[in-house]
Amino acid sequence: MSDFLDAGGDPEFMMSLARGLAVLRCFAEQERPMTIAQASKATGLSRPAVRRCLLTLSKLGYVAQDGSNYVLQPKVMSLGYAYLSSTPLAIRAQPVLDQLRDDLGESCSLGIMDEDQVCYIARAEVSRIMSIALRVGSRLPLYATSMGRVLLSDISRADRAAYFRRTELAPITERTETRPSELHALCDRIAEEGYAIVDEELELGLRSIAVPIYGLSGSIIAALNVGTQAARVSLVDLRTAYFPVLKRRARELTAMALAK
Question: 183, 143 in Cβ contact below 8 A?
């Protein structure tokens, strides 16, 4: 969170606004009611600073106090909706994701790269197969997700190396690839093959496959994925049965992006 509050010596930077946004953002990342002490620890801000931020957010209707805890209020959804309503792909994608879900009987998602993470901008579920609750607005590491690796495959090797240097490549499961050299090789292969598969690297028992969505410049602007249970769907099935269907729906989304 400290990078989020780095003014970089800019005299125009509003630290008070940055602190308020940092406090608001920590609720989304923690996904639970929080005390002042918990928000202070999550943001790195002092407790008095957090208390003032929460008081302001409460008066504006974005949070409410429940005993010693603070909880988000429905008004915060207006912030996310403003982005989604101004992003045609996010709006148009939902029927395509719903159809993909019905095609394969699996949950699927659309994600973009944002601040070194993959951010979910659309999702269609059949059932919850992960312990992580995924929804629009969820954020996951680029290096350990199929959508994230598709997005990383489209940036230059130098930019990718810089991302690896500034990111803690921590193992999420015993199978998570964290070596920069191997991640570079995986991204290069993804760029050639047109898809990424992550096999129990984000969560044991979960496999996923993702493909790119292209924009007007020809670069990748988003990724589309399907998540499956490893015990039920083999890697061969992902490549031979799921990939063609996923690729077909990705072409529809690319056409939408190009038509805007």
Answer: yes
User: Crossing angle, helix 243-258 and helix 88-104, to 10 degrees?
Assistant: 160
- DSSP class of residue 76 equals G
- Specify the pTM: 0.76
pLDDT at 1: 47
The dihedrals phi and psi of 112, each to the nearest 5 degrees, come to -125, 165
Residue 205 burial (CB count, 10 A): 14
16, two tokens: 């008070």
* Stronger pLDDT, 84 or 12, i.e. the higher one: 12
Please name the helix (run of DSSP H) or strand (run of DSSP E) that holds residue 48, with its range, or none: helix 47-59
- Give the Cα-Cα-Cα angle 74, 75, 77 (nearest 5 degrees): 75
Ramachandran sector of residue 217 (left: φ over 0; alpha: ψ -120 to 50; beta: rest): alpha
Q: What is the amino acid identity at position 256?
A: M
Q: What is the pLDDT of residues 18-56, one digit of tens each?
A: 888 888 888 876 767 889 999 898 888 999 999 999 999
CB 257 within 8 A of CB 214: yes
